[in-house]
Amino acid sequence: MNRRRNAIAVLGLVLLLAAPTFLIAVSAVAPSARAATTEAVTGSVSGPGIVATGSTTLFYVYGWGGPAVAFNATVVGTIKYYSALSGSNLTGVSFTPATGNITSNQSVLVDLAVGNATETITISVMISSLNSNASENQSTNVSTTVHIVQPYVISATIVNSSATTVSAFVVYVTLDGSMVGRVNVTSLAAGKSFQLVYQYATLGLSSGEHTFGISLAQEHGLVTFPNGQTQYTVNVYVNGPAPDYTLWYVAGIVTFFGVLFIFASRVAARRRGAARR
């Protein structure tokens, strides 16, 4: 009996002495477990807020985090996006590719093609993060609004008047002296022409006169407009907002009824006077 009691006492002492070591081991494991956790999944969809009818515009879809990404930013699963469009008229409108994988912490390039209807559409995107064994999934939803408008169209013909082929170059378009866009011109053989077309999409220009300009000065006279000039400008006049005649209508109605009231009062007074006689 005494031997058993002594053995139990010794075992208890050993466990007591080993307890700190066990706790240290647990505390040493805990940080690595925390380090394996991931941050919340995030994402975005970005691109121009205004696009021209009948155009195709580049957009960017981004997603990161969630169960698919380890603490050290290593991808251990799959990050995927799913898109949807909403609007009053989606004829000719597409977001391509509509779904796809996001890798290497980089944005995915997506084309927004629109039809000829002027409207406002919404691009909605769900970013889904799934771990390697598909046991955990997190997602977030992002969206952006795009205005489809009838653009200003600037068109001009340029000519390679030199005897040699001109390599590809860029023509810049300005509005009131500030650059608003560019047109890429492919290589132009000697004596050949190229049709420049630029669409400027805007929700509206301020009232008054505006000037769009195209300059070919960077080509040192090798490429010109048909008249031999290197500068091309076109003026656009924007009328002010239509006058609001509502106030005048209301004032006219008030005046009209006032005249009737005065006329009726005078007639009544005359009648009352006649009755007294």
Please characterize this protein's 3D structure.
It is a single chain. The chain is an alpha+beta fold and 277 residues long. Among the domains are: 42-149, Immunoglobulins (Immunoglobulin-like, Sandwich); 156-238, Sandwich (Immunoglobulin-like). Helices cover 23% and strands 42% of the residues. The protein has helices spanning 2-35, 246-276; strands spanning 42-46, 50-52, 56-64, 77-86, 94-96, 99-101, 108-113, 119-131, 137-149, 152-160, 169-175, 178-185, 193-200, 208-215, 223-224, 231-238. It has a five-stranded mixed β-sheet, with no helix packed on it. Strand 8 and strand 9 (137-149) form a beta hairpin. It starts with a helix and ends with a helix. Residues 7-37, 245-269 and 271-277 have low confidence and may be disordered.
Features:
alpha+beta; Immunoglobulin-like; 277 residues; 5-stranded mixed sheet; 4-stranded antiparallel sheet
Please give a quick description of this structure:
The chain is of the alpha+beta class. Helix content is 23%, strand content 42%. The strands form 4 sheets. It has a 5-stranded mixed sheet with strand order 2-9-8-4-6, with no helix packed on it.
